[in-house]
Each structure stands twice: as structure tokens, then as C-alpha cells.
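retry 2 of 3: previous attempt timed out while embedding S-adenosylmethionine. Reduced batch size to 1 and resubmitted. Inputs unchanged:
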Amino acid sequence: MWNEQTELEVLQQIYDLTQTTTAVQNWRNLLIFGYSLQRDLKRKLLWIWPTALDLKKLNGMLKQLDIHHVLSIGCGSGLLEWLLSAVANQELSVYGLERDPNWWRSKYAVRSFIPLNYVEQAGSKLTNHFFSGCCSGVTPCALLFCYFNNRSAFLDYLSVFEGKWLILIGPQPAVGIHTDPNPLQPQLPDKEWALRELCDWTDQNVVAIYEKRII
Ligand SMILES: C[S@@+](CC[C@H](N)C(=O)[O-])C[C@H]1O[C@@H](n2cnc3c(N)ncnc32)[C@H](O)[C@@H]1O
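retry 2 succeeded.
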């Protein structure tokens, strides 16, 4: 019978897999373990559980595009971000940003898998400096939005981002799950943003990488 205790034990096993000295090699075990979890708990940890092949494909693309510092906006538990850097053997730094620190620091939230940065008031004036503040002084070269669903915040972040890569992960439009932006129909504000790479992920999800070009 699935209960709160079982959930805590399962979470502990996942934390253990990410925290041992061999954690980087554990990402495959973590994925296998994750597939066996109940839907609600899976969702609490990650909106989309990629396969090992999905992660490898994305990692290959990031390498090819020379993307080494990614800031994930609305990263939730940060498990996807942890997986991405584990697959890249720590050659990729993935930072996380969330809103509502009170929630993420509360006993009800899952513990995050990467250190979280917070935007205290979403929608307040952001500057480019804000991004390097989230990434230990490094300006990220890519912003990542996975299953993000907040159009006005998305536009705010984009308007102050000076990097040239944008990574959108979400469902294919036909699936009927609403995210904003949707990776394939993002309605980007500037014509300079052009689709550069597409990668299908499991369960009708897709990763779209856009590049900001100087016209
Ligand atoms: C559907 S969840 C996706 C979480 C995670 N990316 C995933 O794939 O599992 C969307 C997340 O965006 C966050 N979010 C919404 N508006 C935000 C904002 N203005 N700034 C940062 N995060 C925001 C929410 O708190 C939530 O955790």
C-alpha cells in the first residue's frame, strides 16, 4: 500500500543515488528506479522523465553547439538539471531558478537536487546582471524552460537575457497539454530567434533549441 512513509523512503533512495561519490555514474540507475514510481510522485519530481537515449541525444547537441552553462527557469526539484549535468559528466553546469522560496524551503516540497536560486517577485525588474547572479558569476549561454507555463514571466526573462541560446522542453502541441511557451509554437517576440535543433523525446515530448541571430 502506497502511503506517505513509502513516498519518503522512495525519495530517500533517489536522494542517495544523487549524493554518493559515484553519483555521476548513478544517473542510469536513477532513471530505471524513476520509471517504477507512481505517477503522482514521478510528476512531483519531474514533469517529463526522459530516457537515457533522450538525455544522450540532448547532451550531444549541447556539446556540438558549445553550450556549457545553462540556467533553467522554473526548474522545480532540479532533477532534470541534475541528470543533464550527470550525463555530461559534469562538463555542463546547470543552474536552477524558482519562485516562491517559502514553498521550496517548506517541509511539503521535495528537496531540490541542485542549489536553487530564487526570484523573489516574479515579474519585478530583471537585468542581465540577475542571470550571472544565479550562475555564480558566469553568464549562462542558454536559458532552459521545461514545461514552463507563464507567458509574461517568460517574456520578461527573455527580454533581459543577452545569451544566444534558448532551450524549450515540453509536449508536442497535438498532445493537448498546455505549456507557454510550447517548444514548437513558442511565439518568440523577436524575429532574430531561429529554430536551430529539434529532438524528439519520449512520450511525445520535444526539445527545441533556438538561436538568437544578429540580422
Ligand atoms: C510545471 S512546473 C515544471 C517544473 C520543472 N521544470 C519540471 O519540468 O519538472 C513549472 C515551474 O515553473 C515555476 N515558475 C512559474 N513561474 C515562474 C517564474 N516567474 N519564475 C521562476 N519560476 C516560475 C513554478 O514554480 C513551477 O515549479
